[in-house]
Amino acid sequence: MSFIFWLILIIVIVLISGLVWLINANKRFNQLKTKYNKIYAKSNIKVGEFLQNSLNQNYIKNLNLCYGNDYYYIPKTKTICIEQNTIDSTSIFNLTASAHEFGHAIDHKNGNSLIAVWYTLANIERFTAKLILPLLLVGLILCLFSTTLTAGTIIIEISVVLFLMMIATRIINIPTEKRASKNAIELLEKTGTLDLQEIKDAKKILNCALTTYILELFRYIFFSGIQKLVNTVNRLNRK
I need a labelling partner for 62 at 20 to 30 A (CA). Which of 8, 43, 101, 157 fits? Predict the structure, then answer.
């Protein structure tokens, strides 16, 4: 068998192995979330107290707090969002997740360029995500049935650029999340919220969480296009 065959086979095996590892990591993260939601910090510091202590050490003007279904940070409004009913929680997971979002706020305050680029691309994605597949299909149709390939080719190229921008958004998000996790560990240590063993547990949670962002990148690259195509075909069939 040729060298090319073995090279392709090795690449496929590596990709499949990596995907399996990432999927297991996602499952592992959910297990860690369940476990450390039931284990409480020995300091007995609540999420609300931790956030206030962090703000005292890292003054961020006009920092806001909101409640939602997940943990996230909104750079535009300088808002840290935490899960509902967790403000009085002392669990290691909720403290770690809150610290992670505060880590984003610190990066934003310090003028980290990556978080600004990520936020800009993410906002663009909100408006362009649904255009990628329709543009691709229109471009292919024009290429097939038009006497000139120029218009169809340009439209296809636009759809490819939009798709690559979405991939770039997810790639940029990975170092952004990693830096926020680094800030989170420093906050949890400086504020005395977690002891040495609990810090190790927090690192375990954050490292596992990082792999879920890598999984999201792989999922989008390999499966998002197929999923969008199936959804489009189903909508056309219903019409």
Answer: 43
Helices within 78-224 (DSSP H only): 92-109, 113-128, 132-145, 150-190, 196-219
Are the beta carbons of 127 and 222 closer than 8 angstroms? no
Tell me how far apart the 2 most distant CA atoms of the chain are, in Å. 73
Tell me, what DSSP letter sits at residue 90? Answer: -
Q: Number of helices and strands (H, E) in the chain?
A: 8, 3
Q: Which two tokens stand for residue 134?
A: 């329709």
Token couple for 230: 């199936």
Kindly report, residue by residue over 29-74, the tens digit of the pLDDT.
889 999 999 999 999 999 999 998 888 888 788 888 898 888 999 8
**Pairing of β 79-83 and β 72-74:** antiparallel
**78 DSSP assignment:** T
- 69-97 pLDDT, tens digit per residue, is 889 998 888 899 998 889 999 999 999 99
Give the number of C-alpha atoms closer than 13 A to the C-alpha of residue 148, restricted to the C-beta side: 4
Strand 79-83: give its sheet, edge to edge: 64-68, 79-83, 72-74
Q: Which two tokens stand for residue 32?
A: 């860690």
Between the two ends of the chain, the Cα-to-Cα distance in Å is: 49
The domain limits of the chain are: 3-238
Q: What is the pTM assigned to this prediction?
A: 0.78
